[in-house]
Amino acid sequence: YLKSARKGDPIDQYNLGICYQYGRGVTQDYKKAFEWYFKSANNGYARGQCNLGLCYYYGRGTVQDYKKAFEWYFKSANNGCAKGQNNLGYCYQYGKGVNLDYKKAFDWYYISANNGYARGQYNLGYCYYDGKGISQNYDKAFEWYSRSANNGHAMSKNNLGYCYEYGEGVVQDYNKAFEWYLKSAIDGCDLGQYNLGYCYYNAIGTRLNIEEAIFWYKKALDNGIEGAYIELNKILSRNNFIYNNNKNKVNY
Hints:
Layout: H1 2-6, H2 10-22, H3 30-42, H4 46-58, H5 66-78, H6 82-94, H7 102-114, H8 118-130, H9 138-150, H10 154-166, H11 174-186, H12 190-202, H13 210-222, H14 227-237, E1 242-244, E2 249-251
Antiparallel strand pairs: 1-2
């Protein structure tokens, strides 16, 4: 990548940035990653523009600057990068580097989703589910969560499980709810782990299994879901156990 990048190839400049960002074949260096993304972006490569925007958004290798992040996402999005289109939608949704605008957020998520980007499909589903920038529509939410979930997005798998559990946008089906929560949990989604624990404890779509409930609630707690701490103590207190969140163990 280095020889080609030095000669001005924007794709290999981007690839070299990836190497530095993740420490692939070279010592991890966010500043050098930023520098190569900057060159790639200024040479018009959409994915380089998107990653440069990410550097500005998170302050990786440079000072955090939401306005510059927005500017580069905008360039990337208009050059056809589905990830950049999603990230631009996110800026509009949360007012990062630009005035908050749910309608524009929806529009960019829609473009990203239709370009096959799983996170864009998830965010579009969320817009339909919550009525952000568009009229609330559970059927459409379910449709886009399904597409995203089938493209591997862990949170969409959780949300698809939720739709099945409560019959939102689809016929209620506890077995399918359990199946999607399980997929989400295995993929590391904290809410999927929490909901899977809930299914095991309340026999939703599966048989009652206290050990599995404890296992998945603990996973969810380890990943930051504080509600799992309450659920763990509900289970354990029935046997005079108390889950010690600080020491991460069960006290008798």
